[in-house]
Amino acid sequence: MTVPIGQPVRDAAPPRATLDPGFRRPAPGLNDRIYALWRADPGKVGIAVQRIDGEWAIAQRGPDLFPQQSVSKLWVAMTVLDAVDNGRMSLDQRVRIGPEDLVVFHQPLADRVRAEGSVTMSVRDLIETAITHSDNLANDSLLRTVGGPEAVRAFIRKKDLGSIRFGPGERLLQAGTAGLTWQQSYSIGRNFQAARAALPPATRRAAMDNYLANPVDGASPSAIASGLTRLARGALLSPESTDYLLGVMSRTKSGPKRLKAGLPAGWQFLHKTGTGQDLNGMTAGYNDIGIATAPDGTRYAIVVMMGSTTSPIPARMQLMQAVSGAVAEFHGR
């Protein structure tokens, strides 16, 4: 469906002397193409595309809540940068990270902590590590420093970002999704995976079903596309923080074969991925969200979220590439 931009985005697009045909409405055929791609996928998929320097958005399952997983690292970074903008934090502020702070799953920074006993990093370096490498430990260290989950929720409310939830932090989120109660020993080696595997199958299934039915970190594709649009327009952070965060997102290492791979040469893409836990071949959250810039400077927010999917990973990537490829194909028509 085509969604008027006036409702989800409260900031006017920059004035343009001469409007191109795609400023007020999507190119004919784009919405049908997105619908066809969405309908062909057997899982729960949400797609949103919004022209940042324009007046339209299209979406499939746009208002529904999908697990964000590491997509939510973007809101942590924004909350920190908002605190920097308001003089409550500094990018040069130092943060100590010790063994008691270790989390679970992807945390390359943990190797340094284990080897050195503790690590002290600047807020600037933690943002870079959390976004570009999707490091859970760097992200949760930022979260702790900025005031915890409630600080992020307060930022989301203050900026009126809409249907975007923020969970309890990586440790509690992943433990709850698996059916476990967090213990710090789970951060060591593969203790978390071993504890999860020891649970009765019914316990794991019930925990996963509860998470998917009402994701504590859920967000709607349309709200995320709107948030990306407002970020790119400079409506969420100061000009300095906006440029800084967009620059960090342009260096994202994860998901090179997701949305980014569907764009032709000459396009630029900055983004954040998110991937959840697997259970019996089903992944709870396989996402990519970002900002695509055409060679002529036109920008689009693109969001693809797979809330629960059993498709092989190559098929998931192909869907994402087809969505971003369609945006590029219909650009300028």
UniProtKB/TrEMBL annotation:
Domain Beta-lactamase class A catalytic positions: 47-306
Reactions that this protein is recorded to catalyse: a beta-lactam + H2O = a substituted beta-amino acid
Region (Disordered): 1-25
Enzyme Commission (EC) number: 3.5.2.6
Coiled-coil intervals, chain numbering: none
Family statement: Belongs to the class-A beta-lactamase family.
Protein name: beta-lactamase
